[in-house]
Amino acid sequence: MKQEGFFEQVYHVVRQIPFGRVTSYGAIAKYLGAAGSARMVGWAMNASGGKEDVPAHRVVNRKGLLTGKHHFKGTNLMQQLLESEGITVIENKIQNFEQLFWDPGAEL
DNA sequence: ATTCTGACGTGGG
DNA sequence: CCCCACGCCAGAA
After folding, report:
1. A74 DSSP 8-state letter
2. Which residues of A36-53 are buried (b: 16+ CB within 10 A; e: fewer)?
3. Given pLDDT bands bounded at 50, 70 and 90, which one contains residue A6?
4. FRET pair for A85, CA 20 to 30 Å: which of A2, A30, A65, A77?
């Protein structure tokens, strides 16, 4: 039974991201065993675009930059969601990124 | 089957 | 920190 597309695996991890926390595509990819294919993770999020259960706004690139904000409905929606969780975002970059970083492989 | 793209990551300068 | 080039591999046309 399985047949789970690559997306569902990503959603499974992203859904577990705690409130007010963030993670990177690479961390998720590595957790799934697809280290190096971080692009697939981001792409999976693109497919998840309609799933509200997947807080894609909590997933950023390794620099803590909101690279995917362009793919959201609005241009500033992603940042608003993050700030709504107590995260400070300046110039599309998350402040204290290392502090807010949540590693699925390390804590899960 | 081939070709292209992509919300990234790493290494070198 | 920035910039440049390469690799990665799943899915759509």
Report:
1. S
2. ebbebbbebbeebeeeee
3. confident
4. A30
Average pLDDT, chain A: 90
Cα distances (Å, whole numbers) of residue A89 to A7, A37, A44, A53: 27, 26, 24, 22
Please tell me the predicted confidence (pLDDT) of residue A106. 80
Residue A56 CB in 7 A reach of strand C: no
Q: Which nucleotide is nearest to A65 (CA to C1')?
A: B7
End-to-end Cα spacing for chain A: 24
- The C1' atom of C3 and the CA atom of A63 lie apart, in whole Å, by 15
Contact (CB, 8 A) for A66 and A78: yes
Q: Which fold has domain A3-102?
A: Arc Repressor Mutant, subunit A (1.10.10)
